[in-house]
What we know:
The chain contains twelve helices and 17 strands. The protein has helices at 16-26, 51-59, 71-78, 112-123, 132-135, 141-148, 155-167, 220-225, 248-261, 282-291, 300-305, 326-334; strands at 9-13, 31-35, 45-46, 64-68, 90-94, 100-105, 126-128, 150-151, 172-176, 193-195, 206-210, 228-233, 236-242, 269-275, 295-298, 338-345, 348-354. The strands form three sheets. It has a seven-stranded mixed beta sheet, with helices on both faces. InterPro entries: CbiG_hydrolase, CbiG_mid, CbiG_N, CobE/GbiG_C, CobE/GbiG_C_sf, GbiG_N_sf. Keywords: Hydrolase.
Amino acid sequence: MNIVKPESIALFCxxxxxxxxxxxxxxxxxxxxxxxxxxxxxxFLPFNGSFGDTLRxxxxxxxxxxxVGAIGLTVRVIAPLVNDKMTDPAVVVIDxxxxxxxSLLSGHVGGANALTRYLAGLIGxxxxxxxxxxxxxxxxxxxxxxxxxxxxxxxxxxxKVVNQMLVSNQKVGLWWDAPLLVERERCDIRxxxxxxxxxxxxxxxxxxxxxxxxxxxxxxxxxxxxxVYKLVPRRVVAGIGCLHATSLQMLVELLQRQMAENHxxxxxxxxxxxxxxKKDQPVLHQLAECxxxxxxxxSASELNRHGQxxxxxxxxxxxxxxxxxxxxxxxxxxxxxLVGNTLRQQGITITLxxxxxx
Length: 358
């Protein structure tokens, strides 16, 4: 999913009024501001060729684009590049007078709607948002997934179906697994029907379950009679140590086994980590690419500092061994929230932890 990051917003201004507006916004956000040579001033970047060339280049490099100018011009420039709402950057257009901020592309997953509201608030403009759930003052499944950094099987289809149900006033239940209840308050859940227990469901047209479990605690008859969608927040981290000759197949199988033994859906995996001395082991990079998660590295001094919290002696030796890596790595990645036992097999160790920051 493409989530707008404050440090990756490009702003384009074509007129003196646009430059003045860009100056105001730069005091609140770390923007990369582009303009023409004749309007260039300190802190701005020149167009690389034309406005169109620069905007098209930025479309591939930034998480969000803000154009102070005409919406028609913006549409014509980016039209050939628009591909997928799950990966396209957010695109927002502001008129030169600063009266309207318009969410043009990737409103939910890309974050254009949220960015539109924020920018409008900064300059006292009217936010213009046209997505159906927002117009009806309801949440959206893709927005909820973004807020939770969560995954779902066949996400595109599920978001389309659930969002249509919400705007059609159908009852879509929302159930939170106990470990994730603490995150409910910070999420937009307008329009969903709260479900406190899966043992006594109200009358529903569909059910969304927010859980990291590999299987839902629902009777078979309910699973077949009601459309059920499982939204899986990515919260599980895995500290891993392994020998240089370890195969990717073996590592994948053992990680899947460790997740299953702790009843985690594999989609709940957030990141893997190891010691810095393992940075050149291709299999660990391949594992991260396989599951599309970050690969984090920790120095011997970092691991040594936290060895005292763990039960095994001598966690980090002068020469780092695979057998003493996974626990302190998982400890650091999860702020000490380790889960289950460490898997040790065929020169591989895997320790899981839970991270609740996203």
